[in-house]
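Q: For a teaching session next week I want to show students how multiple molecules come together into a single three-dimensional assembly. I've collected the sequence lines for a complex. Could you give me the predicted structure tokens for the whole thing so I can convert them for display?
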Amino acid sequence: MNPMPSSTLAQQQQALLQALLVRPGTTNADAAETLLLDFLDTRSTQAGRGLATYQANGHALAERSLLAAYPVIAALIGGDHFAPLARDVWHRHPPQCGDLAQWGDALPGFLLGNAQLDDAPYLSDVAQAEWALHRAAGAPDAEPDWPSFARLGQEDPQGLALTLAPGTAVIASPYPVATLITAHVFGTPSLAEAAQRLREGQGENALVWRQGLRPRIAGIAPASAQLVQALLAGADLPQALDAACSITDPLEAFDFSAWLTAAVTDGLVIGVHGLRSPRPTTLEKNSP
Amino acid sequence: MSGTPNPAPLTPSVGIGWRHPHYAALLEQQPALGFIEVHSENFFAPGGAALAVLREGREHYPVSLHGVGLSLGSSVGIDPWHLDQLDRLVQTIDPVRVSDHASFASGNRAHAADLLPVPMSHAALDAMCANVGRVQDHLRRPIAVENLSAYVQWRDAEMEEPDFLNTLAQRTGCQLLVDVNNIYVNALNAQLRGETEDPLDQCRQWIDAIAPAHVAELHLAGHVHCGDIVIDDHGSRVVDAVWALYRRAVQRFGAVPTLIEWDTDVPEVGVLLDEAERARAAARQALAPEALAA
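A: Of course. Below is the structure for the complete assembly, covering every listed component.
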């Protein structure tokens, strides 16, 4: 007997999706499974086992996908806690598309709102920086335009901007997020040193960019962070420098020449381009 | 008489799934392979190291782009974003084949990231035909659609799976990708459900029901017995029963390209190359005149 003779393909598929994605152990999960079983051939007990197989596969995918994007969060939380965390994110914020590399952006917000992690308030900012690294890894490749740097000496800087490397982002945090990440990934500085900076409440502006094919992260000075954020917001060079100088100690003028040399060497700045209409900079000052 | 010597049996183009643990080894060793296969979605990023590695692999081998996320059987249609990413990758890599599964994963607001079975119904067939047609129109080329291992069964099937796939191919012009291991896994699970006493015979009937003209690729992989269910985990060598079915498939479908898949507990690349050689030998054996005459 078919209890739902008028069921449509959409209803069948939605029932299976709901049974897989609703949080297990909830009344909603029981209701979803009951609804699904009306659509399935349940003459054998294998239907329940099959559903559990799909659920387990989803959980394994969740853990593997989050681990790929958030290796430092996984290390900080520990494997025993990371797996259930991944499952929880999977059910609360399921994937929206068929590319799992796109899934996981909800983790920083999820960590922020997790009462069980109140004693580790830095996790959300670390996750935000790791997601920026993850995005930078797959950002469109860019070809450095070295001849374009000549424009800096030949043209009015108004209307000129620096071309930043793919995936460039700045995460301003009251915690030493760049240090925590480099300590775990590269061992520099040591984990003990990173922990010390965390205890001392040292904030950082974490700069994320891609040098060639390699995603990179580093803590940068507030003035540099202002400069990069202004450029990311579409400012031209004079506007970006104004932003940098606005928070620089008057006794220590921002050395743009030294900054630019280092930025080009590190692959952060890969060219100079003209802007049709520089955007007004309305950035708030950073105070990590 | 001075008759023409018997032609040597054809050998199919055999490839292996190229996964992260083997990126460097394959590029360094460059073993003789007919093609390499990758999961399309792993290279959707518009730039970066992964795509650079695939481009390098493409310089040495034909590439088969095998998708796991198009959700060809979905009632809500094809995600245009997904299709755009695939189109860009196809244009970048110029693959020898593009394929995905006869499954669904997406609904209105979520994607389950799995290969979920569609009912063997006319409504599901209509939906899949429309989706496959849209993909092929967008990519301006035919795709191949693979049968899958299904761990739940919908009520009241209106047709058998081979009929579903044959009709899909006839109506859309798509090709079929026959995963021999999936056929066997489904038959073993049918045996566990008490629906068949002879899984191999069920598989032979399945293969014999597929129209050969549509078949563009065969897949081989391992599976795992979990007591109450058999799972297609791609984590071990191809078993003897699947090799026997592969020989039958080659006899029916011809020397079509064949893939060795290995996705969990991935061993050294040499193990995959050994399986690839076994596939070539099995195909040669199956296509030898004395075997065809038997």
